[in-house]
Amino acid sequence: MMPSDTYKIVIHADKMPAGKHVRRFNAPTIDEVAIVIVGDQFQPRDIVLHRRNDQLTIVAETHRCYDALQYPIIFWDGADGYHFNLKMINPVSGKGTNMKCSAMNYYSYRLMIRENEDNHILKCRQLFHQYIVDMYAKIETERLIFIRLNQTKLRSEEYIHLRDAVVNDGSPHHMHEYAQDAIAYVRHYGRPELFITFTCNSAWDDIQQLLLPGQSPVDRHDITAHVFRQKLKSLMDFMVKHEVFGSVCCWIYSLEWQKRGLPHAHILIWLYNKITSNEIDDVICTEIPDANVDKDLHEVVMKNMIHGPCGTLNPNSPCMIDGKCSKRYPRAFVSNTVTGNDGYPLYRRRSAEDGSKLATIQMRNGDIEVDNRWVVPYSPLQSKTYKAHINVEYCNSVKSIKYICKYVNKGSDMAVFGMQPERSDSNAVIHIDEIAQYQAGRYISSNEAVWRILSFPIHEQSPAVVHLAVHLENGQCIYFAAAIVQQIALNPPATTLTAFFTLCQNDAFCENTAVFRSAYVLHMECE
Question: Among 5, 219, 370, 456, whose Cα sits 20 to 30 Å from the Cα of 233?
């Protein structure tokens, strides 16, 4: 008999595992629907039906009736949901094909807005949020089931002793490779010039115009995902193709949510022509613009680029840790930009005595007057163009570069949580076993679930970094079907490493060009 039938899940941001990045385990700053998945494997989430004859029936989450049974308000007519035998339809002819429809294809189809059709799922608000995180978990379950059921058809062994394959689907390993790619850029192109953080703005007209009557942006994560994806592509084209900061030689970005509801992208930009210390003020600004000179820019900066305020003006601000601002605001006044320190430059922040502008912002406690000490570094051109929070920083030290490369690729959100019973007696003593009670799991918000269901990229970079599969002689990884084991054992296929050695031996250009070899060795990663 359980001591209580009612439990609550509590996220403990102070119980971060040792050696992990603190931003991955921070507490949610907004109320949102999310799913926390414990362990590397997605456990089955079957439902149990109690029939009228007192018999119990288990319905798997991949059964065609699962969606209607789990969400009877959304599927009141008992319509079939996703199942393994669902086939794709030719969009031109409207006829069925022999291609199987994946769970990701099916649920991205269900989230789409179509002309002259009413998608009632998008009107269910928080129930819609629960539905999408639940269906994303189903998508991941289907992937793991496919791997498990196809082990006899597709095997991966080491050629030297045919070892059993180990499927590594872990996000930390994946993000570590991206961090190594960024370091490869640094080795070849030098330090990045700009570190940019681009945050989705729910007040964009593109989002507001697509909302149904009575809805707010928090109700429609599908719209915010589509719009932010297009804005991010536009911003990258703005910098790479239109060269607003100069000719770009390479770039890399990763998306994060950090339990804040809306996504933001961390971007690193490398330029062919380096920005000098005298040119920083032409690119980055940390001052309140004059409303009489540029009213639009002044409005954007006041809405999106003012930090807090925090400290004595707002002790309950999320950035406050142990009574101090974790972002080091308010900053000191600086007459001229100063570089050379082991971090970001000290940007020019002139005081009112030097002719800078003051402004007033509205807060719950009343109006507060702010000056340049509270301004987050921004690019006037980008802020005015995209009307969002776009923090632009200049990279000027090796220490900051290493930190940024790891920060950009630190991995997905996590949460340490515990289950606590709801007690009617507040004086009752409960013995807690922290080792058994607290667990760490992957935290997926409803906004992130939509982004992943729509197959939008979490990480992109250019140019591509090719990883050479470094291995001992005859120690390469081999993929083979059961029917061709003998053939593969006698003639193992070439790997990227052995193909590179063969190319260097046979190609005249490679033999005489040291630069060619260094360009490839640059991307080689020991595994």
Answer: 219
- Measure CA of the first residue to CA of the last residue in the chain; give whole Å: 50
Instruction: Report the alpha-carbon distance of residue 97 to residue 88 in Å, rounded.
Output: 6
Sequence letter at residue 111: L
Do residues 123 and 213 lie in contact, with contact meaning Cβ atoms separated by under 8 Å? no
Q: Are 47 and 66 in contact (CB under 8 A)?
A: yes
What is the Cα–Cα distance from 451 to 428, expressed in whole angstroms? 44
E strands, 96-247, are: 96-100, 155-158, 194-199
CA 207, CA 229: separation in Å to the nearest integer? 12
- For residue 354 the two structure tokens come to 């030097």
Phi, psi (5° rounding) for residue 156? -125, 120
Smallest CA-to-CA distance from 286 within 318, 235, 330, 238 is with 330
Nearest-angstrom CA–CA distance, 467 and 464:
10
CA angle 47, 50, 54 (to 5 degrees): 150
**What values do phi and psi take at 333, rounded to 5?**
-70, 135
266 touches 179 (CB < 8 A): no
Distance CA 22, CA 17 (A): 9
Q: Of 71, 107, 105, which is closest to residue 91 (Cα–Cα)?
A: 105
Q: What per-residue confidence (pLDDT) applies to 490?
A: 76
* Beta carbons of 145 and 62 less than 8 angstroms apart: yes
Pick from 197, 110, 229: nearest CA to 390: 197
pLDDT digits (tens, 9 = 90+) for 127-183: 999 999 999 988 887 877 776 776 655 555 444 433 333 333 345 666 677 778 888
Contact yes or no for 261/30 (Cβ under 8 A) = yes
Find tokens 């339809």 and name the residue: 89
User: Rounded to whole angstroms, how far apart are CA atoms 481 and 150?
Assistant: 10
Q: Name the pTM for this structure.
A: 0.82
User: Residues of the chain whose pLDDT is less than 70?
Assistant: 1-7, 9, 11-25, 27, 39-44, 147, 150-175, 340-343, 397-412, 414-440, 479-482, 509-527
312 phi and psi angles, rounded to 5 deg: -70, -25
What pLDDT, on a 0 to 100 scale, did the predictor assign at position 298? Answer: 94
What is the residue type of 428?
A: A
**DSSP class of residue 177?**
H
Tokens of 493: 């296929």
